[in-house]
């Protein structure tokens, strides 16, 4: 008997807890051929704004110790092209589709959510209020819990489908931010976006990235985000989607034991496009070996209390 | 577009000036690869999360060749792969196609890696092709033997005169009377400037800047672009270069390139790095 790794997370029934992360996963179908989408529960599309955004000047990506720093800057085709050209191509995907929403202000977030509410191929929405690479909008929202609550409430009112909110890792009190977002009506928290970072090319005496600053992802941030997931789960019991350095089943299992119901895989795709399938298979074996009735029984099941 | 991941087997690793030519058994990628396309090679060591984009230098049968210059730690490790070892490749990526007959290829240094496959494909199928290949020194002129085996009109140039003619590649482009004076007599044999058919270039940004001046604003030419890259499939939008239309926009090298219409690139925003 094959172990059950289906799980309900953030209002969606996922075939596996492995989700492709926004940004790295493009518009859902670019990775066909390299990534086995049958092993994936959902794909989160590139963040979309009302109008197309051009993104930042290159270089947009740099390698870091155990990580990658990016400053793509939310380049996207805009809502109209997403609906007209991208979503219709996703009919055959075997997994759920989550649209990621960005905006410069509350109105833009609400308008994009309202438009996507009518799209049948979109199963849930994820608000990106935590991008480190854009001036207006982005992670500035996470610095103001009260404003964030209102933004989430606006979107909740019009979304008409499960609503996830992707948080920034570098905030004074992530529990307060999480509570505000849950108060606003979010179904799940994605923890977390990239960590603000920088790389320097000493030979050229220049910042590597065109934007100078970027966001760090990959295994380097995993211990940081693991703590954030654990902290927020203990304090709120919310549905949490973990993100940050998930490159194998052990990393995924660690996040799930810390309180996550699903994990997002992003940077690992670049190095190993087979990572999603390997993670799903590894989790299956783990659940089987530990003789749990299903993956959901592992959520938050760390032994021992904090001393 | 079909991309595959394949653990290739290193068959040969030979010195070529200051670069290495890796011959790899990679049947699936070899069968699919077209001129100008590239692979993403996993660095054979822990801690490297971004694969390295490398042009398919040549492909045939079950094999591909990669010409790699060890410019950093990642490419340095790839250059150390020994025969018998595996090499984790994905690809082929980017748009691949045959260059039109009469194309003039302009290569700078390791840039020959991006052009040789197209040059060889043209020559092997009996299409006329010319190559002007410049480098700083003779050690940076690569693949001279392989080029010599093709029926192409090749001109080698070095800045210090240590190999071929002395000067810059752009001074020897046939059919460009304003600066190609050193080969002017040959150029005049043609009815039309040959660059009007297609100049296809791969080299450092400084060479592209010089080419723009030499060819003028009206010339149609193509540049093989290089950018820091992550996914290779058009998903992450990391490997972009600035585009002229619409203003402020970008094109992804992995998806729309790597060979791009040079007149569509916003060179002023790109700068002259690399």
Name of the CATH first level of the largest domain in chain B:
Alpha Beta
Give the CA-based shape of chain A.
globular
Q: How many discrete structural domains of chain B?
A: 2
Strand order of the largest sheet of chain A: 3-4-7-8-9-10-15-16
Q: Indicate the multimeric state.
A: heterodimer
Structure description:
The complex is a heterodimer of chains A (307) and B (274). Chain A has 8 helices and 16 strands. By secondary structure, chain A is an alpha/beta fold. Chain A has a single domain, classed as TIM Barrel (Alpha-Beta Barrel). Chain A has an 8-stranded parallel β-barrel, surrounded by 6 helices. Chain A has a 4-stranded antiparallel β-sheet with strand order 5-6-14-11, with no helix packed on it. A two-stranded antiparallel sheet of chain A has the order 1-2. In chain A, α3 packs parallel to α4 and α4 (174-183) packs across α5. The mean pLDDT of chain A is 95. Chain B folds into 2 domains: 4-93, Translation factors (Elongation Factor Tu (Ef-tu), domain 3); 103-224, Nucleotide-binding domain of ferredoxin-NADP reductase (FNR) module (Rossmann fold, 3-Layer(aba) Sandwich). In chain B, 20% of the residues lie in helices and 30% in strands. In chain B, a hairpin with a 2-residue loop joins β1 and β2 (19-25). The longest helix of chain B is centred in the middle third of the chain and has 13 residues, at 112-124. The two termini of chain B are 29 Å apart. In chain B, 53% of the residues are buried. Chain A binds chain B through residues 23-27, 30-31, 33-34, 46, 54-55, 57-63, 65-68, 70, 72, 75, 204, 208, 218, 267, 269-271, 273-274, and chain B through 1-5, 42, 47-51, 74, 90, 227-231, 233-242, 248-250, 269, 273.
């Amino acid at each position: 008997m094959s172990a059950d790794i289906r799980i309900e997370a953030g209002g969606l029934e996922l075939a596996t807890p492995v989700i492709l992360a926004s940004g790295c996963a493009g518009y859902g179908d670019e990775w066909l051929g390299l990534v086995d989408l049958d092993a994936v529960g959902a794909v989160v599309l590139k963040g979309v704004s009302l109008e197309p955004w051009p993104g930042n000047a290159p270089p947009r990506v740099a390698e870091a110790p155990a990580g990658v720093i990016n400053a793509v800057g939310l380049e996207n085709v805009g809502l109209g092209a997403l609906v007209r050209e991208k979503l219709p191509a996703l009919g055959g995907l075997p997994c759920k589709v989550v649209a990621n929403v960005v905006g410069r202000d509350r109105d833009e977030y609400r308008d994009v959510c309202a438009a996507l509410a009518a799209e049948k191929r979109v199963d849930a929405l994820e608000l990106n209020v935590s991008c480190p690479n854009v001036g207006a909008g982005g992670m500035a929202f996470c610095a103001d819990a009260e404003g964030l609550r209102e933004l989430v409430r606006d979107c909740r009112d019009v979304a008409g489908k499960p609503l996830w909110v992707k948080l920034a890792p570098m905030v004074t009190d992530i529990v307060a931010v999480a509570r505000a977002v849950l108060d606003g009506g979010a179904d799940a928290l994605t923890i977390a976006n990239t960590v603000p970072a920088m790389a320097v090319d000493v030979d050229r005496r220049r910042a590597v990235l065109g934007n100078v600053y970027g966001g760090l992802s990959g295994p380097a941030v995993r211990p940081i985000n693991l703590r954030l997931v654990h902290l927020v789960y203990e304090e709120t019991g919310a549905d949490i989607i973990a993100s940050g350095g998930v490159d194998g089943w052990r990393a995924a299992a660690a996040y799930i034991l810390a309180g996550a119901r699903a994990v997002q895989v992003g940077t690992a795709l670049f190095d190993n496009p087979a990572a999603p399938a390997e993670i799903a298979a590894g989790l299956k074996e783990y659940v089987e070996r530990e003789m749990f009735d299903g993956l959901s029984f592992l959520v938050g099941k760390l032994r021992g209390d904090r001393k | 577009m079909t991309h595959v991941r394949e653990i290739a087997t290193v068959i040969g690793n030979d010195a070529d000036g200051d670069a290495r030519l890796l011959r790899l058994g990679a049947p699936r990628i070899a069968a699919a690869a077209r001129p100008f396309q590239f692979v993403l090679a996993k660095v054979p060591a822990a801690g490297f999360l971004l694969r390295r984009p490398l042009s398919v230098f040549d492909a045939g049968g079950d094999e591909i060749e990669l010409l790699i210059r060890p410019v950093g730690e990642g490419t340095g490790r790839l250059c150390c792969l020994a025969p018998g070892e595996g090499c984790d490749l994905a690809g082929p990526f980017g748009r691949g196609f045959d260059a039109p007959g009469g194309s003039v290829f302009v290569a700078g240094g390791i840039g020959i890696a991006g052009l040789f496959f197209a040059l060889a494909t043209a020559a092997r199928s009996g299409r006329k092709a010319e190559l002007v290949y410049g480098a700083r020194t003779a050690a940076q002129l690569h693949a001279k033997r392989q080029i010599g085996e093709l029926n192409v009109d090749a001109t080698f140039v070095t800045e210090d005169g240590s190999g071929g003619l002395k000067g810059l590649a752009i001074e020897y482009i046939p059919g460009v009377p304003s600066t190609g004076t050193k080969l002017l007599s040959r150029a005049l044999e043609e009815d039309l400037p040959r660059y009007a058919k297609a100049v296809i270039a791969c080299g450092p940004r400084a060479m592209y800047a010089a080419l723009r001046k030499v060819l003028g604003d009206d010339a149609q030419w193509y540049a093989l672009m290089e950018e820091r890259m992550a996914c290779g499939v058009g998903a992450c939008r990391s490997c972009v270069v600035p585009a002229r239309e619409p203003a402020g926009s970008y094109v992804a090298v992995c998806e729309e390139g790597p060979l791009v219409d040079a007149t569509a690139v916003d060179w002023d925003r790109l700068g002259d790095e690399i």
